[in-house]
């Protein structure tokens, strides 16, 4: 009886945080009540705080090893290459691609490269992994098994981006969610995934954006 109650409570918190994430993404991309980067940082902080309230070992990361660092760096490079090629190919497939990608990059005007880069590297990238992989995927994997947990968390990560109405952003979320989710499933550690996400964010938004 206690186990059933615990599972019901856990399911409620997973569903609740997913609902909150969808609302926050809708506010960020559609309503836009404030500076995008500040709002993104606040949104991620809220989700991580809610996750920590339920999963107190969220920040107990595995030891940072050279293997984790190398995997994180190489995977970020591979994912950037995938997006670089995808950006070219999608230009031939979707006539609306340019406008939708530009709408995402337009947020760069709301902050200096130093501010944006710092937030992506130190807060946004790591925070997203703590929430999506460390809390959502791990919780689902514990309940349903690693493969189902991976697939469902990828779908949820993609689904949250549907509220933006931006097809290219939704596809990007699907690719990223599947990529980082698979990394987490195989490595059993958030460290390389956090490094990968943070470096990829920094590279694609600050260092080498796909659209100037």
TrEMBL record:
Transmembrane stretches, start-end: 12-31, 37-54, 66-94, 155-183, 189-211
Native source organism of the sequence: Clostridium aminobutyricum
Keyword Transmembrane helix: yes
Keywords, comma-separated and alphabetical: Hydrolase, Membrane, Metalloprotease, Protease, Transmembrane, Transmembrane helix
Protein's UniProt name: CPBP family intramembrane metalloprotease
Range of residues in the leader sequence: none
The CAAX prenyl protease 2/Lysostaphin resistance protein A-like domain, residue ranges: 113-202
InterPro entries per UniProt: CAAX_protease, Rce1/LyrA-like_dom
Gene Ontology BP, a term: CAAX-box protein maturation
A Pfam family the protein falls into: Rce1-like
GO MF term list: endopeptidase activity; metallopeptidase activity
């Amino acid at each position: 009886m206690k186990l059933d109650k615990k599972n019901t409570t856990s399911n409620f918190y997973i569903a609740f945080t997913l609902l909150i994430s969808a609302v926050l993404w809708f506010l960020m991309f559609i309503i836009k009540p404030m500076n995008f980067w500040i709002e993104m940082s606040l949104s991620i902080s809220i989700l991580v705080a809610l996750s920590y309230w339920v999963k107190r070992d969220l920040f107990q990361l595995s030891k940072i090893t050279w293997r984790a660092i190398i995997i994180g760096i190489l995977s970020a490079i591979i994912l950037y290459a995938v997006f670089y090629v995808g950006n070219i190919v999608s230009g031939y497939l979707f006539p609306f691609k340019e406008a939708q990608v530009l709408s995402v990059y337009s947020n760069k005007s709301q902050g200096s490269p130093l501010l944006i880069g710092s937030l992506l590297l130190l807060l946004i990238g790591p925070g997203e992994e703590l929430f999506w992989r460390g809390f959502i995927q791990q919780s689902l994997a514990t309940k349903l098994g690693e493969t189902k947990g991976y697939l469902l968390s990828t779908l949820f990560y993609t689904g949250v981006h549907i509220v933006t109405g931006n097809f290219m952003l939704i596809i990007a979320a699907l690719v990223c969610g599947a990529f980082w989710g698979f990394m987490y499933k195989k490595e059993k550690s958030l460290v390389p995934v956090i490094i990968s996400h943070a470096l990829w964010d920094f590279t694609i938004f600050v260092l080498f954006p796909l659209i100037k």
